[in-house]
Amino acid sequence: MTMIVIDKGVATAAMAQDAVKTYLQTTYGIAGSRLTNLSQALNQAFDGNGKSCGANRYAGNACLHASAGVPGVSSVSLFYYLGGGGVLNLVAMGAHESSTTYRLSDFGAADGDFKYKKVLSL
Questions:
Q1: Partners of 40 in beta bridges
Q2: Which structural domain range is residue 93 located in?
Q3: Which tops the pLDDT comparison, 84 or 17?
Q4: Would you report the helix, strand and coil content of the chain in percent, each value rounded to 5?
């Protein structure tokens, strides 16, 4: 399985899990306990253990999320959908603000449900 990262509509090539981790770490400055939580969230996504994002959509696609870490401290939340050929499409990354809200603080879409810096309630 591979993943494409889509930041404000600009997509990377499909990458294996380790390459995605390295890309997100270096591009968005993920370090310390957030790096550990990023690894755990990626494991959830690649293992097919994401949770529904309810009615929230990206370009008409139903999305899932995978999170790890303590809300408000060092969490990482990934928002993605399963595209053609079994490729995961990561459309936003942020952190838990509470047990039911997420701030899309690392990157996201230019507009819509997964707009960068939006607070998303699930």
A1: none
A2: 3-121
A3: 17
A4: 25, 45, 35
